[in-house]
Amino acid sequence: MYTNVFTKTMLDRLKPPLIASVSLAVLLVFGMAVYRGIDVSFWDELPEAFRSVFGIPDGADVGGLAYGAIYSGYGMLTMAAVALAGGAVSIAGEEKNGTIGLLLDNPVSRTTMALSKAAALVMVTAVAFIVLWLAGILTPLMLDVETGTMDINALVLMMFVNAIFYGFFAFALSGWTGKSSVAAGVSAGVMVVSFIAVGLLPLIDEVAGLAEFFPWYYFSSGEPVLNGVSWGDLTVLLAGAVVFLIVGVVGVSRRDLRSQSVGTKMIDRLRANPMTHKAAEMLAGTARVSKIWVKTASEHQALLYVIVPLLFLMSVMIGPMYTMLDDTLKSLGEQFPETLLALFGGGDMSTPEGFYQIEMFGMMIPICILVVTIVIGTAALAGEEKRNTMGLLLSNPVRRSMIVVQKTWTMVLYAVIVGLAAFLGVAAGSLLGALGMDMGNIAATCALATLLGLAFGALALALGAATGLTPIASYGAVGVAVVAFIINGFLPLNDSTAGWAKVSPFYYYLSSDPLINGMHWGHAAILAGLFLVLVVAAIVLFQRRDLRQTG
Amino acid sequence: MTNNVAIHTQGLTKHYGKVEALVDLNLDIVRGEIFGFLGPNGAGKTTTIRTLMDEIRPTAGTATIVGLDTHNDSVEIRNHIGYIPGDLAMYPNLTGRDTLTYFSNLRGGVDWTYVDALAARLEADLSKKIGDLSTGNRQKVGIIQAFMNKPQVYMMDEPSAGLDPLVQREFQGMMKEAAADGATIFLSSHTLSEVQRVADRVGIIRTGHLAAVEGVQELRSKAIRRVDLYFDGPPDARTFESINGVREVEVRNHHVSLSFDGHMEELLRVATNSHTLSLTDINSQEADLEEIFLTYYREEV
User: DSSP states of B239-294 as a string?
Assistant: First the structure.
């Protein structure tokens, strides 16, 4: 192994997993602090469906609830996603950057290079999990929470191995294809599908056995936090990881290395073919570059292809699911302390509106819209500067303000499309499940979610306008969004701090219960106002500033 | 300022914090002129161009292009400018033609037969994606982009980066033709042979200060040249060392080799003044810009 390849890769890749694990550790402290003050015995009476979706094991106490909700569920997804992102770029990333030739120009064999990168991936993941493990042990001590027989060691070990499994899966695809986007996309798709399948399949007796075909099963079914390490499951995951490692190493050794080529897409083939040239040209050629906002939209269309179908399908599914679970939910409705559900956006589980609020509107829909707006907001100015194309763009007779306005217009368009997908999905789900939800109220809630997303997208835009730095724009906007979400979720739990929730934009999204009460125009105006103020700030800041030149 | 001035700067200064990237630049470039802008890496060439393009704003001083203020009238100015940024970056997913269409849509009114003619001249493949092109081929798209509007002023920062010698020649021809048609070209370059071939005047910039502005011909005539003198007997080195402007005298048998930047007349008088020796042959190599350039660089150290 080459220690310098190992060390460099490790240092390059340490930041994302570390940020993820520290954020999860903070969430764990928050979660446990909240659960501590609440009678949680009702969880045992909840249907299996809920506990398995949230990753809560049977017989869990306060510690188990927090570990389950924060570590096994969202935490595991986050850490696996970070690991697979690292795996996806480990080899293909160097090819994309055009640096792999330079690296292999040294007397380094491809096999050793790939193994060094794999070792670095394991190492950065391990460092992140050590943070999670320490937080898992220290938080209950700090908050004086009894964790009983909960086995945090086993949970963190299984999580680590599961993360490595997905990391190496992406590594294998990355090594074999040399395409980081394929590696990340396929492995993330497999992860999400298997997570959902393993949560839902066991609920239906006829197909329960199929869950074993999904890798997530070998992480979650043994409930390590309750039962300790399942060595059989661990072996399955490890064996899978080793196979992926071999595939990746063999893959990179056997093929031609890629140059910085951008690759040929379907539309390129259609343009090249004389039969389809005209049609393809109209779709993607001249039309695509007719205006700044159209070109911006064309650059981000992949986002829509992923998010719109996913959001739509999930929104539809929740309706029939509610009908299936209806009776159990109604009997338990009273027992749910509202505070507990703050983590998931709040809502009364016994009504379809409340169920939709917890499952979709609380986190899923705003996350989808925020991802789209923040990505566009970041790329709009800071991204164009990072790619060094802003100078050339501005050598044309266009005002800087016009560039901001046109790119903002794309952001608005995309946010509305995602909001519309959510509306259509929820409306269809309500019709399918015969839930009788008010269409106007669904529309109002989706509109508020869209405005919320736009406010944070405009924040990313303004941060990019002020600094020209993509990390500041994206991490800044995401960071503020997470803090705002937590403020809105947790401050109302205590009467003395409840008023402060109003500083969070999230307050103006759901606090008026728009699914029940319809549009709250005042709150909509506040969110729209925030969006406009930030866009104007972006224009002013961008006009004043020296453009950056990187490289 | 007369109407004939295309680019005018007055006390143009740019500081990055405490770093003085550009100090008190005063420059007038007339219409139809090709102005070569030379300097070592980090001397302030790109800073100058980016300030003129209003990408960055001067700490002090002002500049005008075709009589318009580079900051206040920047949008109007850009109607008249063709620009090739240093370290040219474009959109990797667009083809060359898409890229040109994008920019022509922002400008309006591009003559596509002219674009095609430029592409043919530079042998540029506009159907390939920018990301799939080599540096030189990408640069060709950048050049076409700058030329396609037939602008009044060309701002070019290292425009021939990556071009092969044949295409470089073609590109130099394009610059000369543009200048002959009355356009002004501000050419920042390291390719000294290119500057020597096309530029009317050059400015040499060093650590943010304009060290010299002169016509290429004057600069060359004043520059140090290598002179070889051949005699019918062994000459005395001391005879030549006393002449103004003579350096590095080397004598080998009947041959004297020296560096010279004084008056040729004086050198010839000394060489032919001897009663014992006669001059049999003389060989003077005209200094090229590279030597002048290197001299300016060395003075810096």
Answer: HHHTSTTEEEEEEETTEEEEEE-S-HHHHHHHHH--SS--EEEEEEEPPPHHHHHH
**A391–B75: do the CB atoms touch at under 8 Å?**
no
Nearest 5°: the CA angle B15, B19, B36 is 70
B85 interfaces chain A, CB cutoff of 8 Å: yes
Architecture of domain B5-217: 3-Layer(aba) Sandwich (3.40)
Q: Tell me which of B45, B76, B98, B143 to substitute to probe the interface with A (most A C-beta atoms closer than 10 Å).
A: B98
The minimal CB distance from A551 to the residues B75, B87, B101 is found for B87
Angle at A437 between CA A431 and CA A438, to 5 degrees: 115
pLDDT tens digit sequence for A449-478: 999 999 999 999 999 999 999 989 998 998
Q: Does B158 touch chain A (CB under 8 A)?
A: no
Report, as ranges of residue numbers, the positions in chain A whose pLDDT lies below 70.
Answer: 1-2, 34-65, 69, 203, 259-267, 281-287, 325-349, 493-494, 550-551
> Which DSSP letter does residue A383 get?
I
A527: number of Cβ within 10 Å: 23
Pairwise CA distance, residues B34 & B200, whole Å:
5
Q: Does B103 touch chain A (CB under 8 A)?
A: yes
The ipTM of this complex is 0.79
| pLDDT 10s digits, A315-346 | 888 888 788 766 665 555 555 555 555 555 55
Q: Where in chain B is the domain with CATH 3.30.70.100?
A: 223-287
Taking domain B223-287, whether its CATH number is 3.30.70.100 is answered by yes
**Burial degree of B267 (CB within 10 A; 0-12, 13-18, 19+):** buried
Positive or negative, the CA dihedral A325, A331, A333, A336 is negative
β partners of residue B34: B185
